[in-house]
Amino acid sequence: GDSVTQMEGPVTLSEEAFLTINCTYTATGYPSLFWYVQYPGEGLQLLLKATKADDKGSNKGFEATYRKETTSFHLEKGSVQVSDSAVYFCALILRMGSNYKLTFGKGTLLTVNP
Amino acid sequence: KAGVTQTPRYLIKTRGQQVTLSCSPISGHRSVSWYQQTPGQGLQFLFEYFSETQRNKGNFPGRFSGRQFSNSRSEMNVSTLELGDSALYLCASSASTSIVDTQYFGPGTRLTVL
Protein backbone atom coordinates (compact mmCIF):
# COMPACT_ATOMS: atom_id res chain seq x y z
CA GLY A 1 0.00 0.00 0.00
CA ASP A 2 0.90 3.68 -0.02
CA SER A 3 3.37 4.72 2.65
CA VAL A 4 5.77 7.44 3.76
CA THR A 5 9.05 6.66 5.49
CA GLN A 6 10.95 9.35 7.35
CA MET A 7 14.31 9.13 9.01
CA GLU A 8 13.88 8.30 12.65
CA GLY A 9 14.68 10.94 15.16
CA PRO A 10 15.41 12.55 17.31
CA VAL A 11 17.77 14.78 15.39
CA THR A 12 19.89 17.14 17.47
CA LEU A 13 21.88 19.93 15.83
CA SER A 14 23.74 23.04 16.82
CA GLU A 15 22.54 26.42 15.63
CA GLU A 16 23.63 27.26 12.06
CA ALA A 17 24.18 23.59 11.18
CA PHE A 18 22.89 22.09 7.93
CA LEU A 19 19.71 20.06 8.18
CA THR A 20 18.51 17.13 6.11
CA ILE A 21 15.49 15.05 7.02
CA ASN A 22 15.02 12.17 4.61
CA CYS A 23 11.61 11.20 3.30
CA THR A 24 10.81 8.48 0.79
CA TYR A 25 7.44 7.29 -0.34
CA THR A 26 5.66 4.39 -1.95
CA ALA A 27 2.55 5.19 -3.96
CA THR A 28 0.43 3.44 -6.53
CA GLY A 29 -0.14 6.64 -8.44
CA TYR A 30 1.28 10.15 -8.76
CA PRO A 31 1.02 11.86 -5.38
CA SER A 32 1.40 15.42 -4.18
CA LEU A 33 4.01 15.73 -1.44
CA PHE A 34 4.06 17.87 1.68
CA TRP A 35 6.12 18.78 4.70
CA TYR A 36 4.26 19.82 7.84
CA VAL A 37 5.77 21.20 11.05
CA GLN A 38 4.39 20.97 14.57
CA TYR A 39 5.90 23.37 17.09
CA PRO A 40 5.62 22.49 20.79
CA GLY A 41 2.07 22.94 22.02
CA GLU A 42 0.74 23.96 18.61
CA GLY A 43 -1.15 22.37 15.75
CA LEU A 44 0.39 21.31 12.47
CA GLN A 45 1.34 23.91 9.92
CA LEU A 46 1.99 23.36 6.26
CA LEU A 47 5.67 24.11 5.67
CA LEU A 48 5.95 23.46 1.93
CA LYS A 49 4.55 21.32 -0.84
CA ALA A 50 5.23 20.06 -4.36
CA THR A 51 2.64 18.69 -6.73
CA LYS A 52 4.70 17.32 -9.61
CA ALA A 53 8.08 15.83 -10.35
CA ASP A 54 11.08 18.18 -10.11
CA ASP A 55 9.01 20.84 -8.34
CA LYS A 56 10.84 22.49 -5.47
CA GLY A 57 8.83 23.64 -2.48
CA SER A 58 10.39 26.28 -0.26
CA ASN A 59 9.42 28.31 2.79
CA LYS A 60 11.23 29.92 5.74
CA GLY A 61 14.61 28.78 4.39
CA PHE A 62 13.47 25.15 4.09
CA GLU A 63 13.48 23.40 0.71
CA ALA A 64 12.43 20.04 -0.67
CA THR A 65 12.48 18.75 -4.24
CA TYR A 66 10.05 16.16 -5.60
CA ARG A 67 12.24 13.40 -7.02
CA LYS A 68 10.12 10.88 -8.88
CA GLU A 69 13.08 8.73 -9.92
CA THR A 70 14.11 8.13 -6.31
CA THR A 71 10.59 8.56 -4.83
CA SER A 72 11.98 11.05 -2.35
CA PHE A 73 11.15 14.46 -0.91
CA HIS A 74 14.00 15.26 1.47
CA LEU A 75 13.74 18.39 3.61
CA GLU A 76 16.80 20.65 3.82
CA LYS A 77 17.81 23.89 5.46
CA GLY A 78 21.19 25.49 5.18
CA SER A 79 21.39 27.03 8.64
CA VAL A 80 18.99 25.99 11.38
CA GLN A 81 17.91 28.17 14.29
CA VAL A 82 16.77 27.30 17.80
CA SER A 83 13.26 28.35 16.73
CA ASP A 84 13.23 25.51 14.17
CA SER A 85 12.98 22.97 17.00
CA ALA A 86 9.79 21.05 16.24
CA VAL A 87 8.42 17.80 14.86
CA TYR A 88 8.47 17.55 11.07
CA PHE A 89 6.05 15.34 9.12
CA CYS A 90 6.35 14.25 5.53
CA ALA A 91 3.04 13.44 3.85
CA LEU A 92 1.55 12.47 0.53
CA ILE A 93 -1.87 12.88 -1.00
CA LEU A 94 -2.91 10.48 -3.71
CA ARG A 95 -5.97 11.29 -5.74
CA MET A 96 -8.16 8.36 -6.68
CA GLY A 97 -10.93 9.59 -8.92
CA SER A 98 -13.02 11.99 -6.90
CA ASN A 99 -11.53 10.68 -3.67
CA TYR A 100 -8.07 10.96 -2.20
CA LYS A 101 -5.86 9.16 0.26
CA LEU A 102 -3.73 11.06 2.73
CA THR A 103 -0.73 9.34 4.33
CA PHE A 104 1.69 10.82 6.88
CA GLY A 105 5.13 9.74 7.99
CA LYS A 106 5.74 9.08 11.68
CA GLY A 107 7.40 12.43 12.22
CA THR A 108 10.97 13.48 13.04
CA LEU A 109 11.75 15.45 16.18
CA LEU A 110 14.35 18.15 15.59
CA THR A 111 16.10 19.86 18.50
CA VAL A 112 18.41 22.77 17.77
CA ASN A 113 20.76 23.83 20.54
CA PRO A 114 22.25 27.34 20.85
CA LYS B 1 -8.97 36.20 11.10
CA ALA B 2 -9.49 33.67 13.87
CA GLY B 3 -7.82 30.30 13.38
CA VAL B 4 -9.29 26.84 13.67
CA THR B 5 -10.64 26.26 17.16
CA GLN B 6 -11.27 22.94 18.83
CA THR B 7 -13.18 22.23 22.00
CA PRO B 8 -12.60 20.90 24.50
CA ARG B 9 -8.80 20.97 24.58
CA TYR B 10 -8.55 18.11 27.06
CA LEU B 11 -10.94 15.30 27.85
CA ILE B 12 -10.83 12.26 30.11
CA LYS B 13 -13.30 9.43 29.57
CA THR B 14 -13.62 5.80 30.62
CA ARG B 15 -13.88 2.73 28.44
CA GLY B 16 -17.30 2.17 26.96
CA GLN B 17 -18.33 5.82 27.07
CA GLN B 18 -18.83 7.97 24.03
CA VAL B 19 -17.36 11.37 23.28
CA THR B 20 -18.08 14.29 20.96
CA LEU B 21 -15.39 16.71 19.85
CA SER B 22 -16.06 20.01 18.16
CA CYS B 23 -14.21 21.97 15.50
CA SER B 24 -14.88 25.47 14.23
CA PRO B 25 -13.09 26.17 10.95
CA ILE B 26 -11.68 29.44 9.78
CA SER B 27 -14.47 31.71 8.61
CA GLY B 28 -15.31 30.99 4.98
CA HIS B 29 -13.69 27.56 4.93
CA ARG B 30 -16.05 24.79 3.85
CA SER B 31 -13.77 21.79 4.15
CA VAL B 32 -13.06 20.23 7.54
CA SER B 33 -10.83 17.19 8.03
CA TRP B 34 -10.16 15.15 11.16
CA TYR B 35 -6.97 13.32 12.13
CA GLN B 36 -5.85 11.07 14.96
CA GLN B 37 -2.30 11.42 16.26
CA THR B 38 -0.75 8.75 18.49
CA PRO B 39 2.89 7.95 19.34
CA GLY B 40 2.56 4.47 17.89
CA GLN B 41 0.62 5.05 14.69
CA GLY B 42 1.56 8.64 14.02
CA LEU B 43 -0.86 10.90 12.21
CA GLN B 44 -3.79 9.17 10.54
CA PHE B 45 -6.59 10.63 8.46
CA LEU B 46 -10.09 10.00 9.78
CA PHE B 47 -12.46 11.77 7.39
CA GLU B 48 -13.21 14.99 5.57
CA TYR B 49 -16.44 16.93 5.27
CA PHE B 50 -17.27 19.47 2.62
CA SER B 51 -20.56 21.36 2.53
CA GLU B 52 -22.13 19.02 5.11
CA THR B 53 -21.21 15.86 3.15
CA GLN B 54 -18.53 13.35 3.99
CA ARG B 55 -16.22 13.49 1.01
CA ASN B 56 -13.44 11.15 2.07
CA LYS B 57 -12.85 8.59 4.77
CA GLY B 58 -9.80 6.86 6.21
CA ASN B 59 -9.54 3.33 7.57
CA PHE B 60 -11.19 3.66 10.93
CA PRO B 61 -14.00 1.54 12.40
CA GLY B 62 -17.60 2.68 12.37
CA ARG B 63 -17.31 3.77 16.01
CA PHE B 64 -15.75 6.92 14.60
CA SER B 65 -18.26 9.20 12.94
CA GLY B 66 -18.65 12.84 12.15
CA ARG B 67 -20.91 15.47 10.78
CA GLN B 68 -20.78 19.00 9.51
CA PHE B 69 -23.33 21.72 10.03
CA SER B 70 -24.51 24.38 7.62
CA ASN B 71 -22.13 26.92 9.22
CA SER B 72 -19.24 24.50 8.45
CA ARG B 73 -18.64 23.67 12.10
CA SER B 74 -17.94 19.98 12.51
CA GLU B 75 -18.26 17.41 15.25
CA MET B 76 -16.57 14.06 15.61
CA ASN B 77 -18.09 11.30 17.71
CA VAL B 78 -16.44 8.19 19.05
CA SER B 79 -18.73 5.59 20.58
CA THR B 80 -17.84 2.72 22.90
CA LEU B 81 -14.42 4.15 23.71
CA GLU B 82 -11.41 1.85 23.91
CA LEU B 83 -8.08 2.46 25.62
CA GLY B 84 -6.45 2.65 22.20
CA ASP B 85 -8.58 5.68 21.32
CA SER B 86 -6.42 7.81 23.60
CA ALA B 87 -4.86 10.31 21.22
CA LEU B 88 -4.59 13.88 20.07
CA TYR B 89 -7.44 14.58 17.65
CA LEU B 90 -6.68 17.30 15.15
CA CYS B 91 -9.06 19.19 12.95
CA ALA B 92 -8.06 21.10 9.84
CA SER B 93 -9.96 23.42 7.56
CA SER B 94 -9.42 24.51 4.01
CA ALA B 95 -10.94 27.16 1.78
CA SER B 96 -10.44 25.12 -1.30
CA THR B 97 -12.38 22.29 -2.84
CA SER B 98 -9.01 20.59 -3.41
CA ILE B 99 -7.31 18.81 -0.55
CA VAL B 100 -3.99 19.56 -2.20
CA ASP B 101 -4.40 23.15 -1.16
CA THR B 102 -3.39 24.42 2.24
CA GLN B 103 -5.05 23.03 5.30
CA TYR B 104 -4.99 24.99 8.54
CA PHE B 105 -4.83 22.90 11.67
CA GLY B 106 -6.31 23.54 15.09
CA PRO B 107 -4.43 22.89 18.34
CA GLY B 108 -6.18 19.58 18.88
CA THR B 109 -8.20 17.85 21.57
CA ARG B 110 -6.24 15.54 23.85
CA LEU B 111 -8.47 12.55 24.68
CA THR B 112 -7.47 10.17 27.46
CA VAL B 113 -9.44 6.96 27.88
CA LEU B 114 -9.08 5.24 31.27
How would you describe this protein?
The complex is a heterodimer of chains A (about 110) and B (about 110). With about 110 residues, chain A is an all-beta fold. Chain A has strands spanning about 5, 10-15, 20, 25, 30-40, 45-50, 55-60, 60-65, 75, 85-95, 100-105, 110-114. In chain A, strand 7 and strand 8 form a beta hairpin. The model of chain B has no long low-confidence stretch (mean pLDDT about 90). At the A-B interface, strand 6, strand 10 and strand 11 of A face strand 5 and strand 10 of B.
Would you summarize the structure shown here?
The complex is a heterodimer of chains A (114) and B (114). Chain A is mostly beta strands and 114 residues long.
Quaternary structure annotation: heterodimer
Radius of gyration of chain B, in angstroms, nearest whole number: 13 Å
Q: Average the pLDDT over all residues of chain B and give the rounded result.
A: 92
Residue stretches of chain A low in confidence (pLDDT < 50, at least 5 long) are none
The coarse overall form of chain B would be globular
Helix content percent band of chain A? under 10%
Largest interface: A-B, 22 and 20 residues
Straight-line distance between termini of chain B: 37 Å
Strand content of chain A: over 45%
**Helical run tally of chain B:** 0
Beta strand count of chain B: 11
User: What's the pLDDT, averaged over the residues of chain A?
Assistant: 92
Helix and strand topology:
The complex is a heterodimer of chains A (114) and B (114).
Chain A (H helix, E strand, L loop, with lengths): L2 E4 L4 E4 L4 E3 L1 E4 L5 E7 L5 E7 L5 E4 L2 E4 L9 E3 L8 E11 L2 E6 L3 E6 L1
Parallel strand pairs in A: 2-12
Antiparallel strand pairs in A: 1-4, 3-9, 5-6, 5-10, 7-8, 8-9, 10-11, 10-12
Chain B lengths: L4 E3 L2 E4 L5 E6 L6 E8 L3 E9 L2 E5 L6 E5 L5 E5 L8 E8 L9 E2 L3 E5 L1
Parallel strand pairs in B: 2-11
Antiparallel strand pairs in B: 1-3, 3-8, 4-5, 4-9, 5-6, 7-8, 9-10, 9-11
